[in-house]
Amino acid sequence: MSKSKQTKIDKVQHLLRRPSGASLAELCKTTGWQPHSVRAALSGLRKKGVTIDRRASDKPNRPSTYHLTSGTGEES
User: Fold this and answer.
1) CATH number at residue 43
2) How many domains does the chain have?
3) C-alpha to C-alpha distance for 68 and 41, rounded to whole angstroms
4) Contact at 8 Å (CB) between 64 and 24?
5) What is the distance of C-alpha 73 from the center of its chain?
6) Each residue of 54-65: pLDDT tens digit?
7) What's the whole-model pTM score?
8) Helix, strand or coil for residue 53?
9) Is 31 part of a structural domain of the chain?
């Protein structure tokens, strides 16, 4: 087994790298976490030097999305 198990934080980062980013609801569904836990995980990533942008939707009644910006650190 050369492939290590993907953690929930890895899954969160994968979703945030998509061009469309990820909404809080998508992050909750993927991880199984409550919204406050997802926001805490995002804060933890920011403390590690990862840059995460929150973008408001330009469409009415659509959720904000979170995005990793280019040039983010991958160090643990």
Assistant:
1) 1.10.10.10
2) 1
3) 13
4) yes
5) 14
6) 999 888 999 999
7) 0.82
8) strand
9) yes
